[in-house]
Specification:
about 600 residues, Glutamine Phosphoribosylpyrophosphate, subunit 1, domain 1, 13-stranded antiparallel β-sheet, 19 helices, about 15% strand
């Protein structure tokens, strides 16, 4: 597995067994790979990500006096090197920040945008939608990147270090290399065919024409030079000048191998689009749950409204005392209902009239919660309700199926010694993004625009997620920070996973807040994901359990999903300590670190 190239930090691990939410314990997890520790506790700040090199970059910044925002940017930049198929400066994301001094939560919407020339027919040819598999590896799929602008905005408003200093760990990683692990090789292998369509991508990620070997050192000198350029000139260099020109040229004339026969449809992303890009500073979504305040991303992400609505639906059920089966049943049905409303009502609020306040009202949640029965299962696709005119147990209109979203996003969570917290989810969409590398620049471009609906599910029903000029596609990213009644952090978390992000965050929150699981165990617990579909997806720990048959007995239908999400989080502990937690097994395990480890990490639940 990868070993940190940046400064190695000694952290003390605890054994983090996978905890079932209602079945016999699944088989023991394999040992945590070297360099990856899933839980750590101590003082001075904490970082949790999927990768030890990236977590070490954040810890290095915290140790040198940086704050949580500084460390989050450094961690994200390092992930752009070691997790290039999940995130990077060719993508976008959502940044949620808790300011300890004012005890307030702020958000940055750094979602990619469609070209200013785009319209609702962006993915139509001859009146019909382009096949999804063809759209994802094309210039049409590429939105204007938002990640560099997110870094600039977060640092300008809340950071304490200059970007150049924060990029140094990532520059070292890109220049000197990191050790290839089985996950990186497997992800490369899964993309090998389409990577070979694009010579620059093949040259970078298939060295000497072959898959990278586990244990070998992978270097990306082009990305090191690109980061150094951003360090000198600022991130504005990506939006204006030679780099912006290179991005626009790559999107509009994808550098495809003619011999491949691949139709890499050109996009229409101009330098004007890049120069016009702006992040949005907006109020977070907010939901009250069990006397706590749950903050997340408001639209253009559907994460905050959908997690929030589901929590409101669950508010009237005492999940702490429910049986295992009743807990899962209620969680699944709340997810189903919230996704039904998400599909009908949530889109980019700059273009759509999104009823965010109404979707998050307890009155509306109560009107939808009465649909849930303990001895029966709702039928999907379930029709949405009307949050502006709540009717008890009411549904109306046409059900909208949940569209596919790429799952290979990444999430990082950071806290500092002053009590500031960042939950940051960033992405280039599916594994490997568009598959198109900007020549000589060392990074992949996103295929985020495929998160738009290609065409309405029902022409008679308005779809809030159709493309438009400068429009942000709907997202499921759900970076979340929970505060207590004194506006102090309780926990912060998030996950990758496309539309399963929402259910992963919801299940982890209820596992931690309601079921009393320590954070690392709430993250590790086997997952269920219902997204207004005929079947609920289960990981093996639930699919192979007796609980599955019990739930099938009241009407649930399931299918197996080997892996759902890959969460990270931090928890505030007494005495100024922090606990960082990550996956024990998923995606090869995650990496939790603290600046000054305590003698023994405290696997505390909030109860």
């Amino acid at each position: 597995m990868r070993r940190p190239v940046a400064r190695k930090l000694s952290v003390l691990a605890v054994s983090a067994a996978v905890v079932s939410v209602g079945a016999a314990a699944p088989p023991a997890a394999p040992p945590t790979p070297p360099g990856k520790v899933p839980v750590a506790a101590g003082w001075g700040g904490a970082v949790a990500s999927v990768d030890p090199d990236a977590s070490a970059a954040g810890i290095e910044v915290l140790r040198n006096g940086g704050n949580a925002v500084d460390a989050a940017v450094a961690t994200a930049a390092a992930l752009g090197v070691t997790e290039p198929y999940s995130a990077g400066i060719g993508g976008g994301g959502y940044f949620v920040y808790y300011d300890a001094r004012s005890r307030t939560v702020h958000t940055v919407d750094g979602r990619e945008t469609a070209p200013l020339t785009a319209d609702s027919g962006l993915f139509l040819e001859n009146g019909k939608p382009i096949p999804f598999a063809e759209a994802v590896s094309s210039g049409l799929a590429v939105g204007t990147p938002g990640t560099p602008a997110t870094w600039r905005t977060a640092l300008d408003k809340w950071g304490s270090k200059r970007l150049g200093a924060l990029l140094k760990p990532a520059v070292r990683l890109a220049r000197d290399g990191f050790t290839v692990d089985p996950t990186f090789r497997a992800q490369t292998a899964a993309n090998e065919t389409r990577f070979r369509h694009f010579p620059d991508t093949a040259e970078l990620f298939l060295p000497d024409g072959k898959l990278p070997v586990v244990g070998s050192t992978f270097k990306n000198p082009d990305l090191a030079r690109t980061y150094e350029e951003l360090a000198r000139k600022g991130v504005g260099a990506l939006y204006r000048g030679d780099l912006a020109e290179d991005i626009a040229d790559t999107v509009n004339k994808p550098p495809v191998d003619p011999a491949s026969g691949w139709n890499a449809r050109p996009g229409d992303l101009s330098e004007k689009d890049l120069a016009a890009y702006r992040v949005r500073l907006q109020a977070p979504s907010r939901t009250s749950y069990r006397g706590l305040d749950v903050y997340s991303m408001a639209p253009s992400s559907s994460g905050g409204t959908t997690v929030g609505e589901a929590l409101n639906i669950l508010e009237r059920t005492d999940l702490s005392k429910a049986s295992q089966a009743r807990y899962l049943h209620r969680y699944i049905e709340a997810s189903r209902i919230a996704f039904a409303d998400r599909g009908r009502w949530v889109g980019d609020p700059a273009f759509e009239d999104v009823p965010t306040k109404e979707l998050l009202s307890q009155r509306y949640a109560d009107s939808r919660a009465c649909l849930i029965k303990d001895d029966a299962v709702l039928t999907s696709p379930l029709a949405p309700g009307d949050p502006r005119r709540p009717a008890a147990c009411g549904t109306g209109g046409t059900a909208v199926p949940t569209t596919y979203e790429g799952e290979d996003t990444t999430h990082l969570t950071v806290a500092d010694k002053w009590g500031n917290v960042v939950a940051y989810t960033l992405t280039i969409e599916q594994t490997g993004g568009s598959g198109i590398t900007v020549p000589g620049r060392g990074f992949l471009l996103n295929n985020e625009l495929t998160d738009f609906s290609f065409a309405p599910a029902d022409p008679a029903v308005h779809d809030p997620n159709l493309p438009g000029p400068g429009k942000r596609p709907r997202s499921s990213m759900s970076p979340t920070i929970v505060l207590d009644r004194h506006d102090r952090p309780v926990v912060a978390l998030g996950s990758p996973g496309g539309s399963t992000i929402i259910t992963t965050v919801l299940q982890t929150l209820t596992g931690f807040l309601d079921r009393g699981l320590p954070l690392v165990d709430a993250i590790a617990a086997p997952r269920a994901s219902q997204r207004n579909a005929a079947q609920t997806e289960l990981e093996p720990g639930l699919y192979d359990s007796a609980l599955r048959a019990e739930l099938e007995g009241i009407g649930h239908s399931f299918r197996l999903n080997p892996e759902i999400g890959a969460a990270t989080g931090v928890q505030r502990l007494p005495g100024g300590k922090w606990l960082a937690a990550a996956e024990t097994v998923r995606r090869g395990g995650g990496s939790a670190m603290v600046v000054r480890p305590a003698f023994q990490p405290e696997a505390m639940s909030p109860r």
